[in-house]
Every structure is written in structure tokens, then in C-alpha cells.
């Protein structure tokens, strides 16, 4: 006949033995919120939950490890093994349970090997899940993911002195230490660089990144650990960003970063106290203080992050490990220093590459320096002071003519061909803009890096790497920044002049092309947006991160402690921040007032009037949000920066 113990490991017992267990137990009830088992208490009896629901939690933060619904068994291993409770069990609904005496449960285990094995496997699986969610670096995983990972783990043992991992070898296994201690060594002869104990993970750098072992791990005492394969853990943890971030942070703390590539170090043209580190292969450029350069030179692949912090302390007298870590992280982000990263799953990576090729196709030159040099030789007279003056004159004349002829010209005026008109108009404006930057860079004697052309959201995107211009003085850098807008201004002038001598659709085309280039000039020259005008202003004032510093001074410093600006720099910060705020407000007002009418005009005769008005309002609100949102975010970030 059925009994209340016809589930889980109890199914291995004979019916008579199940009835014997039931007869030795007594029925108990718990109200919601009552505790069945308390973490850390001495082992007593087990509980079979017959009705209701319980929550298993552990640690000072009462982290939830599992939620169990009847029928369920809790507390069995502590009762059998005589060990303290590892977690608490709380009733979250009215609970009716059998309280199984520890002695009766031990007798059943001793008398039936099959039941003993089943109960041990049942409890071991739950213990592994508890360990993962409580004591391991994977404790941010949701319960379902922890259960999936737990099913992949294998319990292994090592004697004192045994080697778990050997430096330099390739391996795909990591070990979660459940009990015991290990020593971590590096080099030949071995040099002790650390230790680890229960709750730690070792070997994760190789298992998660596919790189060779970075150290030897040797058991100092008898060790009990869970072995897990990288091919099993990577697909699971990659679905949870918090876990990926935590694991990568843990790997970085033990990682011995090494300089990569063949970067060059050159003096900064504007700051004798700084240098510029740049790598031609990656296109990375970093301006470093002398202290940061010393940290960079310490990165030999042998020193841990702790070693680097201590070296920095010995040199400067400043114990600032966080500053050292952030400096190294900057090098890693620039690709100048090795960094542990969880390896990509190849099928996923291929799928992403295919999707990227379809949604954002692009062509790229690894180096556009030769092409830029050829164009500079051909157009050298234009990229002189006289050429700049001529460009301004042409742009001004053409803009005046454009203003006299101006009317609302839209790509839709050209029917279906309007799509091509809009696309190639934007393509021409963007291509000429970036080519002008590249030629101006060559005119200053610097090299041009990679360049490319692509499509993003059906809009042409052109880019040229002119970072080598960092190595010229700031006034000449400003010239390079202004070359792109100057091209667009001259192009607008040429199209404006052409419009004055044409008519019909040709004139509409010239007006549209002139308008596209003038809009490009306005946006790129605005010092209140981080485009060419902003960088030129930063160079001319010799203030790096001008926008961030201005917003921080006004919206953090002056808001918290109002006072008058004391220096020219502070006055400039106030002027810039107020102008940036005014720009956002004025442009937002123009968008809210003008865009609905513009949209209605474009859609007139094609869409019902009510829908035109609705669509125009939605477009205006979206554009306003895109203007206001980033500015508000910058202000909040500035206010959050430490003083």
C-alpha cells in the first residue's frame, strides 16, 4: 500500500522498512515564518515535508539556496553524519512534516546498501548545489543554473603534496575547493605566490579562457574538490553577466599581466610630465603620467596585482592598490596588456560574425596610410593656409546662395530614387569629411591607421584612425580636427553655387546635398557635442576631458558648495556647462516645435492627418529624449564622482 515516503531515495526501501520509519517518526506542524532547521545548530533529526513549502537559506545575508515544495526531505545528511547544519530551513507556507529520528534513519542506511547509496547521491547533489550557491565564485547563479552546473561536477580527492595544476600546461579543468588548502607557485625554481582554501576556485583562468596554466597549484593538506570542465562551465556562466564579471574580476586579481604587442613610447608634445604609448598593430594610443608608465613597465608576466601595488608603494610612498588596478585595467582595455577573458563559444561566435556581416556590413583597410599619402601628394595645395582661406570663401558664397534659394527639399521629392539620393548624399559628406582628416594628418607628418566604410541601420558610416595626431602639438591637432568640417563647408558652398545655376530636380538635388553638408558642419563644429569642434576647443584651451570636468565642477562642486569661480579655468568651466545646458534646452525646443510639422510635410498625401500628427509627435519626443537623456546621464555621473 502507498505510504507518505514513496518518493526520492525512500523509494529504494522496502514497504515494511518505510512503514517502520514512519512509525518511529512523529508529525509536526509549522506556521509560515517558523524555522524547521537553523544553520550552525548541532545535528538532530531530519524532516520529511508532507505538505506546504519551505525555503533553504544560508549565510549572514540569508541567501536563498532553494525553495522546496512537498514532498521533500531536509536535514538528512547532518542527522546521518553528525555534522552541524549547513543551512537554515524556513516555512514559507503552513507546513506539515514527519520528524525522522536520526537513529532510525542511520539504522535504515546501515541495513540497506541500495538505500544508503541512493540517499548519499541525493544528498551529495544537494550539497554541491548548496556549496555552489553559498561558498563558491558561482554564488550569483540562479538556482536552476546552479543545479545545471552541479550536475556537471565531479568530486575528487588529492593527498598532501599532490599537484592539481602545473604551470605552462594546457588544461580545460578547474577545481572548486570544498575542503583543505593548496599553495600556488610560479617559476623555476618554484616561488610561492599565494594560497587558497575551501570556497576558492583554481585553474579557472585556463578553463575559462583556454590559455595555458599560469601557475602550479599543489595540495598543502588533503584536499577535497569538485572538478569541472571548461566546455561545461563556459556555456552556463556566459548567460549571466554578473557571474562573468565576478569570475573575470577574480581571475584578474590573481593574473600576472604581461605587456603585449610592440608599442612605442614617445614624449607628449604638450606635457613634459607625460608620455604617449601607442601600438601600430592595434591602433591603441594612451597618454600616461610617469607613474603610470612605471606601472606599465612593471608588467612582465611574473608579478601579480599585489606585487604591482607593492612596487608602486615602494616608488611613490602611496599605498593605492585600487589606483594600480584601475591603471592596469586601462592598459588591458586598450589591448596593450594581457587580460583574462572567458573564451567565446565557437558556434556562437560564428553566428555573431554572420549576423554582424548581415546587419552591419563593412570593408576595412588595416592601414590607410599609403592611400592618404597619395591623396596628400595630389591635393597638397588645398591643405595649406591659402587652401583653407579659399575653402572658407567658397563655402560662404555658396551658403549665401543656398539661403536665397532655400526651400524644404526632401529625398522624397525624387520618388523611389530618393532612397539613393539620401544614401549617397550622406556617403559623400561622410567620406569627404574623413578623407579630409586623413590628409590633414599626413600634412602634419603623422601616419594614418585603419580606415573603413560600412552600413549601420541602413546609413553609411565612414571612419579613419588619425590617433597618431596625438603626437603633434595641440594647435596643429586642432587644425586636423577642423579639416573635416572645413571640407563639408566648402562642399556645401560648391553645391549652393551649383544650385544657383540649375533648376528643377537638379536644383533640388544640389540644395539637398548642400543642406546635408551644412548640417554636418553645424553638428561637428558644435563644441557642446563631443565631435570635431569639441576636440579642437579642448586642444586650444589645453584642457583634457573638458566636458566631464566642466559638468563636474558646476553640477557637483558648485551645487554642493556655491561660490564664485576663482580662476580663469573655473570661469571657463561655468561658461561651457551653462552653454551645454542652454544648447540642449534650445535644440530640444526646436525639435519639439519643428519636427512634428516637418514630419507632417514629408508624409502629406501619403498618411492620414491624425496618424501624421501622432507620428510627428512621437518622432519629436524620441529625438528630444536622445538629446536630454545623455546630458542628464553625464550630469549624474559627474555628481557621482568622488571629490
Low-confidence stretches: 345-355
In whole angstroms, the N-to-C terminal distance is 74 Å
Indicate the overall shape: elongated
- Computed structural class: alpha+beta
Largest sheet: number of strands, sense, barrel closure: 4 strands, antiparallel
List the total number of helices. 21
Computed Rg: 34 Å
| Percent range of helical residues | 40-55%
Strand order of the largest sheet: 1-8-3-6
Structure description:
The structure is a single chain. By secondary structure, this protein is α+β, with helices and mostly antiparallel strands. 52% of the residues lie in helices and 18% in strands. It contains 21 helices and 22 strands. The strands form 6 sheets. Strands 1-8-3-6 form a 4-stranded antiparallel sheet. Strand 18 (274-279) and strand 19 form a beta hairpin. Helix 14 (385-405) packs parallel to helix 16 (474-500). The radius of gyration is 34 Å and the shape is elongated. The termini are far apart. The model is unreliable at 345-355 (pLDDT under 50).
What's the arrangement of secondary structure elements?
Elements: H1 15-24, E1 26-30, E2 35-37, E3 46-51, E4 53-58, E5 63-69, E6 72-74, H2 76-81, E7 88-91, E8 95-100, H3 102-111, H4 113-135, H5 143-150, E9 154-158, E10 163-165, E11 173-179, E12 181-186, E13 191-197, E14 201-202, H6 204-209, E15 216-219, E16 223-229, H7 230-237, H8 241-254, E17 264-267, E18 274-279, E19 284-289, H9 290-298, H10 305-316, H11 321-333, H12 346-359, E20 362-365, H13 369-379, H14 385-405, H15 417-443, E21 451-456, E22 459-464, H16 474-500, H17 504-525, H18 532-541, H19 546-560, H20 568-603, H21 609-640
Antiparallel strand pairs: 1-8, 2-7, 3-6, 3-8, 4-5, 4-7, 9-16, 10-15, 11-14, 11-16, 12-13, 12-15, 17-18, 18-19, 20-21, 21-22
Helix pairs in contact: 3-4, 4-5, 9-10, 10-11, 13-15, 14-16, 15-16, 15-17, 16-17, 16-18, 19-20, 19-21, 20-21
Amino acid at each position: 500500500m502507498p505510504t507518505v515516503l514513496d518518493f526520492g531515495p525512500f523509494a529504494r526501501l522496502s514497504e515494511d522498512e518505510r512503514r517502520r520509519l514512519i512509525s518511529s517518526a512523529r508529525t509536526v506542524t509549522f506556521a509560515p515564518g517558523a524555522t524547521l532547521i537553523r544553520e550552525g545548530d548541532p545535528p538532530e533529526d531530519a524532516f520529511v515535508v508532507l505538505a506546504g513549502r519551505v525555503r533553504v537559506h544560508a549565510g549572514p545575508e540569508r541567501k536563498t539556496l532553494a525553495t522546496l515544495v512537498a514532498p521533500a526531505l531536509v536535514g538528512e545528511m547532518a542527522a546521518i553524519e553528525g555534522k552541524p547544519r549547513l543551512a537554515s530551513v524556513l516555512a514559507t507556507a503552513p507546513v506539515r512534516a514527519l520528524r525522522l529520528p536520526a537513529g532510525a534513519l542511520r539504522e535504515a542506511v546501515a541495513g540497506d546498501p541500495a538505500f544508503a547509496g541512493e540517499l548519499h547521491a541525493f544528498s551529495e547533489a544537494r550539497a554541491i548545489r548548496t556549496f555552489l550557491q553559498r561558498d563558491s565564485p558561482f554564488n550569483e547563479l540562479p538556482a536552476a543554473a546552479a543545479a545545471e552546473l552541479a550536475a556537471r561536477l565531479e568530486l575528487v580527492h588529492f593527498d598532501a603534496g599532490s599537484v592539481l595544476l602545473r604551470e605552462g600546461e594546457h588544461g580545460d579543468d578547474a577545481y572548486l575547493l570544498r575542503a583543505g588548502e593548496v599553495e600556488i607557485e610560479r617559476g623555476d625554481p618554484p616561488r610561492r605566490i599565494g594560497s587558497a582554501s575551501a570556497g576558492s576556485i583554481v585553474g579557472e583562468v585556463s578553463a575559462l579562457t583556454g590559455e595555458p596554466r599560469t601557475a602550479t597549484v599543489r595540495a598543502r593538506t588533503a584536499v577535497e574538490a569538485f572538478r569541472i570542465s571548461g566546455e561545461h562551465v563556459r556555456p552556463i556562466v556566459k548567460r549571466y553577466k554578473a557571474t562573468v564579471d565576478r569570475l573575470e574580476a577574480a581571475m584578474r586579481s590573481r593574473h600576472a599581466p604581461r605587456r603585449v604587442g610592440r608599442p612605442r613610447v614617445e614624449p607628449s608634445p604638450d606635457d613634459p610630465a607625460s608620455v604617449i604609448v601607442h601600438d601600430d598593430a592595434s591602433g591603441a594610443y594612451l597618454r600616461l603620467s610617469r607613474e603610470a608608465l612605471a606601472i606599465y613597465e612593471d608588467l612582465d608576466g611574473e608579478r601579480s596585482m599585489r606585487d604591482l601595488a607593492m612596487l608602486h608603494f615602494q616608488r611613490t610612498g602611496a599605498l593605492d592598490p585600487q589606483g594600480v588596478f584601475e591603471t592596469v585595467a586601462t592598459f588591458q582595455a586598450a589591448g596593450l596588456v594581457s587580460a583574462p577573458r572567458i573564451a567565446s563559444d565557437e558556434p556562437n561566435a560564428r553566428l555573431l560574425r554572420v549576423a554582424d556581416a548581415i546587419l552591419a556590413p563593412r570593408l576595412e583597410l588595416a592601414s590607410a596610410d599609403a592611400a592618404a599619402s597619395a591623396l596628400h601628394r595630389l591635393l597638397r595645395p588645398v591643405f595649406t593656409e591659402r587652401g583653407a582661406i579659399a575653402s572658407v570663401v567658397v563655402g560662404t558664397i555658396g551658403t549665401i546662395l543656398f539661403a536665397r534659394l532655400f526651400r524644404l527639399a526632401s529625398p522624397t521629392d525624387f520618388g523611389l530614387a530618393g532612397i539613393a539620393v539620401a544614401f549617397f548624399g550622406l556617403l559623400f559628406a561622410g567620406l569627404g569629411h574623413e578623407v579630409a582628416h586623413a590628409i590633414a594628418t599626413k600634412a602634419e607628418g603623422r601616419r594614418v591607421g585603419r580606415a573603413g566604410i560600412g552600413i549601420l541601420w541602413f546609413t553609411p558610416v565612414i571612419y579613419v584612425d588619425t590617433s597618431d595626431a596625438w603626437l603633434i602639438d595641440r594647435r596643429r591637432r586642432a587644425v586636423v580636427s577642423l579639416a573635416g568640417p572645413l571640407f563639408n563647408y566648402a562642399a556645401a558652398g560648391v553645391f549652393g553655387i551649383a544650385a544657383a545655376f540649375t533648376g528643377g530636380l537638379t536644383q533640388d538635388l544640389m540644395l539637398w546635398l548642400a543642406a546635408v553638408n551644412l548640417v554636418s558642419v553645424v553638428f561637428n563644429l558644435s563644441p557642446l557635442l563631443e565631435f570635431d569642434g569639441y576636440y579642437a576647443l579642448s586642444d586650444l584651451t589645453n584642457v583634457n576631458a573638458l566636458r566631464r570636468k566642466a559638468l563636474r565642477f558646476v553640477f557637483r562642486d558648485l551645487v554642493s558648495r556655491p561660490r564664485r569661480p576663482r580662476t580663469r579655468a573655473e570661469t571657463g568651466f561655468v561658461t561651457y556647462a551653462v552653454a551645454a545646458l542652454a544648447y540642449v534646452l534650445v535644440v530640444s525646443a526646436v525639435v519639439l516645435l519643428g519636427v512634428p510639422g516637418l514630419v507632417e510635410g514629408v508624409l502629406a498625401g501619403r498618411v492620414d492627418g491624425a496618424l501624421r500628427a501622432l507620428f510627428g509627435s512621437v518622432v519629436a519626443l524620441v529625438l528630444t529624449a536622445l538629446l536630454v537623456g545623455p546630458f542628464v546621464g553625464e550630469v549624474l555621473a559627474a555628481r557621482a564622482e568622488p571629490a
